[in-house]
Amino acid sequence: MLLRDDWLIRVQLCRMWEFINYKRSPDMICLDMIIIDEKRTLMHAVIWKNQVNKFRDVIIIRNFKVSEILGDYRPVQSNFKITFLRITAIQKLPDDIVHIPLNGFQFIQ
Fold it and tell me: Strands (DSSP E) along 21-105, which ranges?
């Protein structure tokens, strides 16, 4: 069920970039990321401007929202994205706890 906000996942950050709408303001709106899990599943994740806390480690993410992607903007081939909430918690894990690849790729048709 997608309406939950109590998900718990263990992931590695692959890519991260600032999303800026230059038509409105030069300020960052959010931080977009591509994360990867132990099964090499890639997922798009978003952290809003007021919640940005940069990280590059293997992490556990708790209490986030999974929602359907609306529109054509899809950094990975998925119908869903993760959105960090005010209650989202991030915990760093030692690198030797689990093997999560640093990168992944998807073939485009």
Answer: 28-36, 42-48, 58-68, 80-92
Beta carbons of 97 and 7 less than 8 angstroms apart: no
Element (H, E) at 11: strand 8-20
The full set of domains in the chain, from first to last, is: 8-92 (2.40.50.140)
CA angle (78 as vertex; 25, 47 as ends), nearest 5: 35
97 token code pair: 């706890």
pTM of the model: 0.60
| Tens place of pLDDT per residue across the chain (109 aa) | 466 777 788 888 888 888 888 888 888 888 888 888 888 888 888 887 776 654 545 567 888 888 898 888 888 888 888 888 888 887 777 766 666 665 565 555 5
